[in-house]
Structures are given as C-alpha cells and as structure tokens.
Amino acid sequence: MQSKTSFFNKTVLKKDITRYAPIWAVYTIFLLLGLFEFGSYDPAITADNTLESVRAMTWINAIYAGVCAAFLFMDLFNGRLCNALHAFPLRREGWLCTHILSGFLFSFVPNLLATLVALPILWEYAYIAPIWLAGVTLQYLFFFGSAVLCAVCAGNLIGMAGLYGIFHLITVLIAGLAELFYQPLLHGVELTIDAFSRFIPLYQLNGFRYAEFEVIHDTIDPFGIFRDLMGKDWLYLGLCAAAGIVCIGLAWAVYRKRQLEAAGDLLSLKKLSPLFLLICTVGAGAVLYLLSSAFSAGSYVFLAVGAVVGYFAGRMLLGRTVKVFTKRALLGLGMILVVMGGTFLLTWLDPLGVTRYVPPLNKIESAAVIGADKGYYFYPTHSSMISYTGELNDTANFKITDKNELAELQDFHRQLIQYRPGPRVEDQPSAKVTISYTLDTGRVVSRHYKVETDSELFQQAGKYYNDIRYVFEVNDPKILYEAFESVTIEGYTMEKSYSIKLTDKDEIGGLIDAIQKDCDAGRMAQNWVFHDKYDENYYLDFLIGDKALQDAWGRSRRHLRVWNNSTNTTAYLQQMIEKHPEE
User: How far is CA 489 from CA 82, 469, 582, in A?
Assistant: First the structure.
C-alpha cells in the first residue's frame, strides 16, 4: 500500500529553525537596529524613511535569500550527507517543501516583528508599516525562489553561487559584453545598459519609490499612497514574486529527478553544462580582451586565446578531470569560435545598414545637436576605450525644424558616418558629438560620434554649438530681448572678484547683441572644448521674468559662461563693470 504523500515535516522544520537560529537572529537584530536608525522624533520623517528603506532592502534580500538557501540545502552539496539523509523514510516532497517554508519564515517572521515594533513609532502613519512588510516580503519571495532553484541545479556551493549570480546578473553581463565586443564595430551607435534595464530586477527594484507622500494641508493623504500601490512599480514587483514562485515549482521538478551522485559536482542538472561552458568561454575571453585593450592591435586575437583557455577550464570544472582535450571538445570549441567570429563579421559588415542610417527628410519632425564634451580616448584598431570629462549639454531645448537646416544637418551627419579618427595618438583630444532626430512617429534616433578637435568636421560642428539659439536653448532668439528681468555678472581678475546686476532693458539688449556677434564669429559655444586654450573669466546669470517663458524654457534662469576669446562679450561686460562699480 502506497503511503500518503506529505509536503511538510514538523521535525525538519524544528531542526531548521534551531540549527540555523544564528542566521535569522542576526537578521532580526539588523532589522531592529535599522528601525531605530531610521526613526525620528517626527513620525512623518520616520514614515518617509521607512518607505525609502524598501529600496535598500533589495540588495539585503538578495544576499540574505542566497545565504538562507545555501545553508538549508547544504546537504545536497556533500555526497555522504546527501546519501545519509535520503536514506531516511522521508519523501523528497516533504523535505523540499519544509526547507522552503523554513526559508520563508526566516524572513517573514523577523519582518513581521519589525513591522509590529514600528507601528507605535509611526503613530498616525502606522499604515506605512504593512506597505513596507508587503514590499520586502515580495522581494524576498523572488530572490529566495531563484536561490532555491539554483541550489537544486548545483552540485556544490561554488556552483550554486555561480548560478545565483548568473541568474540575476545575466542581463548585465550580456549588456556589458555587447558594449565591450560590438560597440567598437558599430560606428555611431551607442549601446547602454538602459536598453536592458527592464530585464534586471535588481536594478529596477532598487530604483522604485513604491509609494509617495501626498501632502494636503500639512497632512499626508493615505489614499494618495494607496493609489501608488496600484502603479507599475508594484505590478513589476508582483511579477517578480510570481517568478519566484515559478522558480520554486521548477526546483521541485528538478529535485524529483536529481541524482544523488551529483552531490559534489559543479552542476547537478547536466543540461546546464553547455550554458556554463559558453559563459566560461566568453568570460575568460572578455578578461584577456580587457587586459590587451591597451595595445594598438590584436585585441581580438587575445579574445580567441582567452576563449580557448576558458573553454577547457570550464570542461575541467564540470568533469573534475584534466582529460578534456578530446575531438568532441575541440568540435564544441570550434563551433563557439565560429559563431562568435560570425557575429563580429556581420556586425562589422552591417548588412541592415544600422550605422549608415540617416532618417529621410520627410520623416523628420525635429532634430538637435547635443554634446561636444571633451575627452581623451584611445582608439586601437579594433577597440575604443573612451574616457570623457567635462559637462554634457543634453537639455537641447533648441530643436531644428526648418527643412533647409535639417537637410544641412543630414549632410553633416553623412560626413560623420564616413569619418574615422586616425591612428591612436597619446592624449589625442577628441569631442563627442551627438545628433538626435525625432521622427513623425515619435521615435527618437540618436547617433554618437567621436571627432578629433583639430579636424574640419569639428569646426563644422561648431556652427551648431555657436548658434545663439543653441547657446540660449531657445527656438526664437527675438524673445531674448524681452525675456530677461535681470542679468547678474560674476567675474574675477587676478586682483579681485566681483558681482554686478543689470536690470536696464537697453543694457541687457546690448549684452545680447554682443553675444550675438561672438556667436556669428564662432566664439560663444558653451562647450568648453571650443575654448581649451582660453580662460573662463565671466559667469552670466539671466533671470527669466515671464512665467510663460519660464515654463517654455523649463527653468527660471539661464546660465552662460564667457571665455576671454569671446572678445565682443568680454569688452561689453568690461564696460558694464566700469559703469556699475560694486558698492
């Protein structure tokens, strides 16, 4: 007669709680200390700090969940202990589910205790405590579920830690490798982590606010907070928690077929071996590729060498033997290298024309030229290790909409596509120039180019940065003469520094005329790379008086810097300083 299946064992639960008491006890003390650290004499401040701490709990839950799963399933990593425990009259379902319940209680009970302690501290904002409890519980459920799956799929602690790290950082690794290997082959296209951020729960959960205080007559509206609970942040968190539950279900399915002989191996689920080999191969290649990036050529050769080393090292770890140099292993390595080389070749050839794409004129709604911040970059044959300094002017309130100007910008863009910097020169100055198109469909297409500052193309770029519309970030420069209520001139000489304020409309108009002349002469760009050999002597603070213009500008002030090569502006400012001596 078949015995009844039990998914819970009281003895195992009691043993987990007592055996691993130091783990959850330390976590409980940490929560209570944190509660008093965030506490304040003002309950509103305490409530706000409590909501803010949910974000910080993302990393804490990620680490704590991994530690709990590692200790609870430690017997799966020791061959002798694994065989001994599985010889007991205890079904696998009961053993697994009881450990999962123990791991959940290790977090939920301390969190519940902290919530109860926080209720009297929060006082009239006590409803914040259940929100905090819900947030951290759902976070932990996601991380613990993934940790359990990794523990069941691994054969030892190193394998579990590796799988757990890959599970949560695989998107970051893909983004990093794409930027490292393929970015140098995509002229003008900039790969960033932002494109992958939605698929990185650690990044997303740590960036959510979860709820906002809505102040009404010096009090906080609780309904405003609960309305936030229905937002996309909580939906994402709920999906992550659901993913954690799915991981637990997958762990149960894997564990039912797990071979006891797998204890001690790197992986117990052999179907993951190809993925592990691929990660070892590409990862080792990336490390050697980075080490060789300081050389002017041969980076991809080092990538291939690193890939070979990583591939065979991975096979040794998986098989726990050094006898891995077989024909089958060489065939697998060859397939990986061919696929990698093929993707590099296709990226360089660009059959889809991504790097050569210039939007059709009739599809462009507006465009902007952004950037020109200075940096020093190394430009090897196959790699671009770029380090930028300076400020990036990315506000770009000034949009090009005139069809003739858009056509000129397209011609300039096509020249940038054909342009390639010369061979690497030590400390070669360069500037990053970005062209951004807004299409009639609402899509934004941006391309980024590194241009040497002594090139003709960089001088052409100066036409846009010295346009008075760009300098003031306004589409219609005529409004400048009536837009400003005052201008504060701050300057300094070797002898002293000074600050004067202009309020006369004629004097402000004269200043704008002087700025216009320097713009026409190509000496008023706000990007300091255009004034590399000159000193910045003046700082102008324009106060926008019209509220409608403030809204259009998105600010109430506009700040300009003036270098001493802006001769018309500096001469006019000197006249104003002599005319209005400081009191």
Answer: 77, 21, 11
At 431 the three-state DSSP class reads strand
Ranked by mean pLDDT, which of 218-232, 327-341, 470-484 comes out on top?
327-341
> Which residues, in sequence order, are bridge partners of residue 137?
none
- Spell out a b/e string for 513-523, using b for 16 or more CB atoms within 10 Å of the CB, else e: ebbbbbbeeeb
Token pair recorded at residue 220: 């906080």
Per-residue confidence (pLDDT) for residue 413, from 0 to 100: 94
Residues whose CB is less than 8 angstroms from the CB of residue 113 and which lie 6 or more positions away in sequence, other chains included: 28, 31, 32
Ordered strands of the 429-439 beta sheet: 385-388, 364-378, 429-439, 444-452
- Report d(CA 208, CA 511) in Å as an integer: 45
Give dist(CA 481, CA 545) in Å, integer.
11
Find out whether 489 and 500 touch, Cβ atoms under 8 Å: yes
- Which residue(s) pair with 451 in the sheet? 431
Cite the DSSP H helix spans in 154-231: 157-177, 201-207, 222-228
Residue 241 predicted with pLDDT over 90 = yes
**CB-based contacts of 25: which residues, under 8 Å, 6+ apart?**
none
Mean pLDDT, all residues of the chain: 82
Summarize the confidence of residues 7-24 as an average pLDDT: 86
Query: In the numeric block, which tokens belong to residue 235?
Result: 């939906």
- CA–CA distance from 264 to each of 80, 156, 544 (Å)? 10, 5, 70
Q: How far is Cα 6 from Cα 88, in angstroms, rounded to an integer?
A: 14
What gap in Å lies between CA 373 and CA 433, rounded to an integer? 8
Q: Is the pLDDT of residue 121 over 50?
A: yes
The answer to whether the beta carbons of residues 435 and 416 sit under 8 Å apart is: yes
Tokens, residue 68: 């709990």
Which has the closest alpha carbon to 369: 402, 413, 421? 413
What does the pLDDT average to over 497-516?
89
Residue with tokens 């109430």: 556
* 564 has pLDDT over 80: yes
- The tokens describing 456, both together, are 């003709």
Q: How far is CA 266 from the centre of its chain?
A: 31
336 C-beta neighbours (distance < 10 Å), count = 19
372 neighbors 459 (Cβ within 8 angstroms) = no
The lowest-confidence range among 83-87, 128-132, 557-561, 577-581 is 83-87
Tell me the two tokens of residue 92: 């696998």
Q: Please tell me whether residue 490 adopts helix, strand or coil conformation.
A: strand
Token pair 């700025």: residue: 515
Which residue in 512, 500, 510 sits closest to 580, CA to CA? 500
